[in-house]
Amino acid sequence: xxxxxxxxxxxxxxxxxxxxxxxxxxxxxxxxxxxxxxxxxxxxxxxxxxxxxxxxxxxxxxxxxxxxxxxxxxxxxxxxxxxxxxxxxxxxxxxxxxxxxxxxxxxxxxxxxxxxxxxxxxxxxxxxxxxxxxxxxxxxxxxxxxxxxxxxxxxxxxxxxxxxxxxxxxxxxxxxxxxxxxxxxxxxxxxxxxxxxxxxxxxxxxxxxxxxxxxxxxxxxxxxxxxxxxxxxxxxxxxxxxxxxxxxxxxxxxxxxxxxxxxxxxxxxxxxxxxxxxxxxxxxxxxxxxxxxxxxxxxxxxxxxxxxxxxxxxxxxxxxxxxxxxxxxxxxxxxxx
Length: 337
Ligand SMILES: Cc1ncc(C[n+]2csc(CCOP(=O)(O)OP(=O)(O)O)c2C)c(N)n1
Prior knowledge:
It is a single chain. The chain is an alpha/beta fold and 337 residues long. 45% of the residues lie in helices and 9% in strands. The chain has twelve helices and seven strands. The strands form two sheets. A five-stranded parallel beta sheet has the order 1-2-3-7-6, sandwiched between helices. It has a two-stranded antiparallel sheet with strand order 4-5. Bound molecules: thiamine diphosphate.
């Protein structure tokens, strides 16, 4: 399976956009212009981008906090992510939620779920519903080492396997779960080993090699779409930043960090593009300049977006929303805007 030059160019753009957007997010975070934590994906971009790239239109994706790149591949716009971070009224979740916690159903993109592991069951239900409608929808979701230690993961993958549901779970092995090193998180030799107990197919791939990730993810998606049940794809990568920006990662060995900096996924892909001649440094510089200009505009637009007002915060939560909004209005002294 070879990846056509046009796909390779698109992959490069997605990888670079993910990295450059994250740099803008760090800058806004440090200026105090954002709300909540900033969970970075530096060094893991090829895993999120390459796996989401294997999906087709109509498929479903639920990310976790490291999967900014996957949401961009599904078509989320940088301005939408920035508005989420700045909890703006015109953000997809209207200022109510964290930066990857929003839904764009028309793009098959659904909110990350804070309770790790739960997304496996939720996604299983979603693809089961589509199966009743005669659709061959594939669902993809993500979990780190920590996420695969939860009861919810095991219940979800068991149900998906018994029902032979088209669910692809990307296992992001990135060495740490918050400050817990992988050997303290999981005694199995690999995360993919967890597939055996549930009769699920699995594979392991270098998560920092975007072309290898796309190929492995395409095989996993094809397996699921053919009705052969779920697939666990373990991507070996590395979290080069702390759990979030507030975490100084003092527990990380500096040599280990330096080694993984040398194995940077974007630099790796650039060497491959040089060797194949698919994109030369001048082509890549042009993409970089284009993304920079787009991000300048997106940041300005998001900064100019209005702050949320209270009233809509009570909408879209329950079916009887008129009643709940009315009660809130009556309860708050002076009423709400
Ligand atoms: C069930 C559950 N327990 C704890 C948390 C808090 N929490 C959020 S992210 C995180 C670390 C998860 O580590 P891992 O799954 O390895 O993913 P990584 O952060 O390394 O990408 C924790 C403990 C949570 N969201 N859900």
